[in-house]
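Please, structure for the following, as tokens.
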Amino acid sequence: MTKIAVMGAGSWGTTFAKVLADNPENQVTLWARREDVVEEINEDHRNGDYLPGIHLPAHLKASSDVAAVLEGTEQVYLSIPSQTLRSNLESWGPLLPPKAILVSLMKGVEKDTGLRMSEVIAEVTGFAKEQIAVVSGPNLSLEIAAEQPTASVASSINQETSQAVAKSATNEYFTTFTNSDVIGTEFGGILKNLIAVAIGIVNGVGYGENTKASIMTRGLAELTRFSVAYGAEPNTMVGLAGLGDLIATSESPLSRNHKAGEMLGKGYTLKEVQKRMSQTAEGLASVAPILQLAKAKGVSMPIVEQVQLVLQGKLAPKDIAPHLTNGTLGPVGE
């Protein structure tokens, strides 16, 4: 049995804990901050606030005791809001087993530093990069928790690490593949959130499928340019962690980023959207640091720039669609 900890009992953390627990070779404990969530998971095998109607495996245990959850674990999956990762890791650091694999399930960049989550993990914990992996793909929590078949990617610079994660995170309805392109896998998961916000905006305005397809296609070119500039493999962006994730997140009402964009498109301000959202939409927090990183590499990201203007109240949501490109008439892929 592989002893596994999942840190964070929101919708994705709970869902991934279920994915892991549904592999009979794993022993999984889920850390939850709130005692009422711990009690509901352990006694009723549910997490009604985040996964309504989903029955969790009886052998999936939860605890609010960080030390107890982490003790003796071989793999630690991190599923908390990206902007709280650093502070949590600083608190948890001494409790992390030194030989454990640390896995990021998060899709964001740190506001102040622009670091990807795997970079924050390495910097704060001091763990070798070979011990760190990321998981990303077309993964809408409620569909996976309902055991609808899907796939994902585990990425690490160390093949043994990615294979160990993929083995643990595979069951009858969830398949995890591997690659070594950590940069591309992470940026694919981060950047598709921004494009999903843009598509949510035009959906909220009332534009149709042509407009959304145009933004999605141009958005894929945009996120590919950015990722390759930072060392990603182009092929990663047309795989599960890029195009696959982009399609799922952009089209589904289950996507928090799509929902946030839709509210913006209907005229809500950023503050109103944040107040109404029960869970974090990582795309909203990632816009500014991603644009800073793009500027550093001289990468043009017109769609993301327009999303920022909408967030700032400087561009009417209805005006985002006519400006899908940077104004040039160059090749489609540029």
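The radius of gyration is 19 Å. Confidence is low (pLDDT under 50) at residues 329-333.
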